[in-house]
Amino acid sequence: MRRRGFLGVLGGALGWLAAGVRAAGARLPGAPGSGRRGQAGSLLLVPMDEAQTNHLKAYGVAYDAVKRGGHTEWLLNYRGGSFLVPDDGAVRRATTLAGVTVEGLDDGGLLSVRGTIEQNNMEQVVLERAPRVAIYAPPFAQPWDDAVTMALQYADIPFTRVWDPEVIGGELGGYDWLHLHHEDFTGQDSKFYLTYAGAPWLADMVQADQATARQLRFANVPALKKAVAERLRAYVENGGFLFAMCTATETLELALAAHDVDIAAAFADGTPMDPDADAKLDWSRAMACQNAHLEKNPAIPVFSDIDGHQVNNPALRQPLGAFELFNFSAKIDPAYTMLVQCHRQVIPDFYGVTTSFTRRTLKPADVVLAEEPGAPWVKYIHGDLGRGTWTYLGGHDPEDPQHQIGAPPTDLSLHPTSPGYRLILNNVLFPAARKRELKT
Amino acid sequence: MRARARLAALLLVLLPARAAGQTALAQALNLEQQGFLGGAAAFYAAALRAEPNNPIAMLGLERVSQQTGWRDSAVAYAERAIALDSTDNTARGVEVRQLRALGRDSLAAAALARWRAADPRDPLPYREWAQLSLAAGRLDEARAAVERAREQFHGAAVLAPEMARVLVAEGEWRRAAGEWRAAVTAEPQVAGAAAFGLRPAPLEARDDILATLTAPGTGAGPGRRLAADLLLGWDEAARAWVLLRSELPPPGPLEMDVLRAFADRARTLEGAAAQRAAAEAYELLAGIEPPGATVATRVESARAYAAAGDAAAARRLLRPLAADPSADPAGRSAAIAVMIELAVRAGDPGGAARQLASDSAALTGSTREALGRRIAFGWLRLGEVDSAGASIAADSSLDGLEVRGWIEVCRGNLAAGREALATAGAAGGESAAAAERAATVALLDAVGRDTLPALGAALLLAVRGDSAAAARALVPVARRVGGAGEPALLAWAARFATAGGDAAGAEALWREVAERFPTSSVAPASELALARALERRGDLRGAQAQLEAMILAHPQSALVPQARRELDRVRGVVP
Fold it and tell me: What value of ipTM does the predicted structure carry?
């Protein structure tokens, strides 16, 4: 696995910015003579360090500014990954309503900010285009919350829900960023078949999944989910940004590796798992993982040893610790740096059906964004496939470390400065900074 | 701080070993308390160099080592202590725990084996290992440790608490209950841990747990008492009391301990059933306690009956105590006080005043004054302002001054009332009362009149519990007062209208304040209240617009954070 490396994803934008910084005294954005004067006007700094009172809504403010075409910059590593947004009526209104802290900047202040960035491990990135966001989520209610849906709703970032018919129907091309959460791409409904036998929500879920499989002409749910997994892989290869959390990460990897082997238990597809399934997995198809071993017991809601914490296997369950974000070189690795912008370097861990990723099962090309020092697992990983990228964050809900099925959803208005939720929102803005064409 | 630590370290070398150890230990505890863990670790180590088997220093070093990541150090000191005294179980435990925490499982297992060999009759090493395994989620290892201990010590109840925790982790509630039953039978002191362990059981497992705990046979008594404790926690106080009463230990100290523990716990719970269970348990306890303790227990029983809404039962217990001049003075005083409070609560301040007068000699001065204030409020609730004033005529305390302030306000003597309430202060007493005082002072400041009988009369209606009438009475007063007083009084009228159930009237008043007096000090609160009124009647779009308007118009208001949360909720972006 790689920790560092230059992706060059930002291309010309950074070259321009570097030139802008070098000439800061004469050609500040917003200064007379600047080519961007017309669109920039005066700027507001949205600090993202401890001075910020609502980090999560700040992302929505930045997103909205980009969407409205205003000149917006992400100041990587500067005061926790601050933003520069236009000082206009819409931003003022939005920040007042949201309780987002902003600071006015005169030319001298802006010059000082640019100088600080130039001289330190910091970088400035222009956010060019508001990503079109899709969330892969079923049309029926689930007895657990989805951290990304909650984060986007709270931050006022618009999104569209897509489900199997849209994915199989080839509609993903209309979106820059796709999120997956608790979905089980092995088609076994999280292996809750025995643990929650008789629960009405599980019965509804199984019935809805089977109906979708029939509607889309698949023999069973595992076959449908394998096809969905392949479409997701193709979406990334074609330039999409995929962000997954919790079970979706691990089961997507397993579904991709199992394209020609039955890894589903009999309750899901009528036949037991292939006894040699482990040996038959084709890890060349997976994006992030390799050499994992499947959990063969259908009664244990655990999928494989990709997950280090094994929360649903009492015999192997590991306690929660804290994970640490890597400090990348902002000027050399701005892409990775974006994904780890936070006002906290160390964040308390949180469980999910998949909580973490064992180091042993990571592919060498994976970039580790956060890890628990000394532990045999990491928390947050990223990589490229074709012209796109994937990013995985283990765990279910950063502000509900022991999230239980049926527990009430997290009220983010009580966690407006959540460092864990910031990681999710970093991913949403990540595609906004990208310069080159996303997909063919 | 660092200089102080260096000086203390220097002094250590000048002291004899044991004294130096004690000084270092004191310094370590002090530094740990202040959060200087690195310094604390150094001083704990110094204390252990002087006294290698000092358990306080050993456990202190273990604590701070965990947080500073210096676990290796703790292991070294533990091994030194064991070398000097192989029976030092504190050091043995530290060695095993720290090796496990360091991930050196094979070394930890070897340390455990040495511990077992050092004293083969002691199950403590097995318990330590089982607990460590449980903490790490290694249930199989924990179970194996328990089973090995049971094999060696030939007892089904050996390490029962640890086995119960394994079973709880596996969702085996019925079998866990069986283990806890065995545990509380062998060691009654673990009853609290047993209840704590079983209380989170899901609804569907509770009947099984209760059946296991209450089944006949060995341990039925402790098991049923544990079941009673669980039922209390599961909001089934009446059933808990029936079960406990049927299974009390034989007369003696244990019976009294069981009754008191149950009653004390039930008394802390909400609801009439829990209070009645507490009352009956206290009453039973009072009947078997030694004479010196029984009066206080009877008074507590009466209080619990009163809290359960059974004033007659409370009086039944209190009357003989209050009338008995030979009773314990403190108990008699408490009984009289509770009887007076009951009379006030029943709307009979006159009866309360008569009892206070007749039993005055049995009460201390401060108790008399406190009861006088209760009686004064009782009179105010009846609208008898002069009688209220008479009840506190001799009360010169700060609390008395507050009551006097309310009385003056109700009389319409606003300046005198304001001065008394302001002197009583915004911070004293209960926070709700303090907030009410502060709000009233602010209202009187806005009104700016020395006397205004119509305002006093309107507020007295509110004190008497007729909020709707108070709202109606305040509006014309507000119109007449004008100026800054008008929006303030209208806002109060809106509050009373809400309390009186007149939602439409309240909404109209909040809207009037928001629209006619947008820069008044009560405008932010009125706009927030208006948004809430709109939300209550289902106009979410209107509520959203109102909240946005409020936040944008008053961005510096202390109410804005709350308005933002409510805006998120109204918009559906948070639950």
Answer: 0.80
